[in-house]
Amino acid sequence: MAIEVTLSDHTHDPLRSLYTAFRVCYSSFTPAQIEARIERDRITRDEMQEFVSARLATGHSSPLAQVWFEFGISGVTRAFSHQFVRHHIGISFEQQSQRYVTYKDGTYPFTVPESIRRAGKEEAYNQAIEAAGKTYLELIEAGVPAEDARFLLPNATNTNFKVSVNYLELMHIADQRLCTRAQWEFRKVVAMMRSEVKKLFPELATYLQPKCGEFRLGYCDESYADWEGCPIGRKRPHKSTLFALYEQSKKGALDVLSDTDYQTIEADEPGVNEMREGVKDEAF
Questions:
Q1: Is 224 within a domain?
Q2: Residue 82: how many CA atoms within 13 Å on its side-chain side?
Q3: Any idea what the CATH number is for the domain that residue 44 is in?
Q4: Range of the domain at 11
Q5: Among 23, 150, 177, 216, which one carries the catalytic annotation?
Q6: Could you tell me which residues are beta bridge partners of residue 159?
Q7: How many of the other CB atoms lie within 10 Å of CB of 275?
Q8: Which of 87, 96, 118, 165 is most buried (CB neighbours < 10 A)?
Q9: Is 113 a member of any domain?
Q10: Over its length of 284 residues, how does the chain's per-residue pLDDT go in tens digits?
Q11: DSSP secondary-structure letter at 68?
C-alpha cells in the first residue's frame, strides 16, 4: 500500500495569525487594533512576511504554536507509528486500531522495504507475512479476540492516522526526521507533509527543514562520521568546526571581554532595548 499524506485542514490564514501573534508581543496596540489595521489593508502580505521572518531570525518561536495543521496519513507501517507517537508536545493522533479493526480473511496491507527487494529476499519476506496472516485468521476463527490475535501482526502492517499538529512542533519534527540519518519511511512522510504545506503556504514550508538547514541550526550536530557519510553533509559545516573557535578562545586566540564590554552589557540604554524589540509601534 502506497503512503498517502493529505493536508485536510489548517489555521484559516497562518501568516496573518503569526503576524498578529508576534505583533502583540512587540506592540502597544491591542490585538483588535492590530487586526483592524490589517483589515484596512495598511499591512500587506509582504510586510507581514518580512516581520515574521525577522522575528524568527531572533529565535522567538512561541507564536508558532498558535498555527495548526491537520493531516490524513495512510499506508504507513507500525514500525513508523512507534516512532511517530514519540512526538507528543503540540501534536495529537488518532490511529487505526488493531483491536477494533479485524482482518477477517487473514490478509492485511503491508510494506516491503526496497532494501529487501534489492537483497533478493522479497519472496521469503512475503511468505513470512502470509504465514502470519494465516495463523492470525486461525486464531480469529477459533474465537481469539482481535486484540490478542494482533500479537502476531508484524511491524510491516500498514496503519492510518488523523493528525493535528501545530507549526512549532511540525518544525521540530522536520528538524529530526528530515535528517538523512532518520529512517527512510519517516523521511518520506515528513517530506510529503512539507510538500502539502508548500502547496498552500510556501513561505511557511521554507522553514520545514532538517536541523542543518539555513533557517534552523545551520550546521550538523550528529557525529563527525555521520556528517562525512551524509549525502548533503558537505553543504553544511560540522559542529566540530564551529567548536574550533571555542577552543581558540580558551587558548587566548580570541579577544577577551574587557571591563568596558561589561559596562556596556550592564548599561540600561533605551537604544539597546529598541534594537532588541525590532520594529517600533510608530513604524506599524
A1: no
A2: 8
A3: 3.30.1360.170
A4: 1-98+157-215
A5: 177
A6: 76
A7: 9
A8: 165
A9: no
A10: 799 999 999 999 999 999 999 999 999 999 999 999 898 878 889 999 999 999 999 999 999 999 999 999 999 999 999 999 999 999 999 999 999 999 999 999 999 999 999 999 999 999 999 999 999 999 999 999 999 999 999 999 999 999 999 999 999 999 999 999 999 999 999 999 999 999 999 999 999 999 999 989 989 999 999 999 998 878 888 998 877 766 666 666 656 667 787 777 667 664 445 445 455 554 56
A11: E
Question: What letters, b where the CB count within 10 A reaches 16 and e where it falls short, cover 193-209?
Answer: bbebbeeebebbbebbb
Active site residue 194: no
Total structural domains within the chain? 1
Query: Does residue 24 belong to any structural domain of this protein?
Result: yes
Instruction: Establish if 284 belongs to a structural domain.
Output: no
49 CB neighbour count, 10 Å cutoff: 15
Cα 175 from chain centre? 6
Distance CA 278, CA 57 (A): 11
Q: How are the residues of the chain apportioned to helix, strand and coil, as percentages rounded to the nearest 5?
A: 55, 10, 35
Q: What is the pTM of this model?
A: 0.85
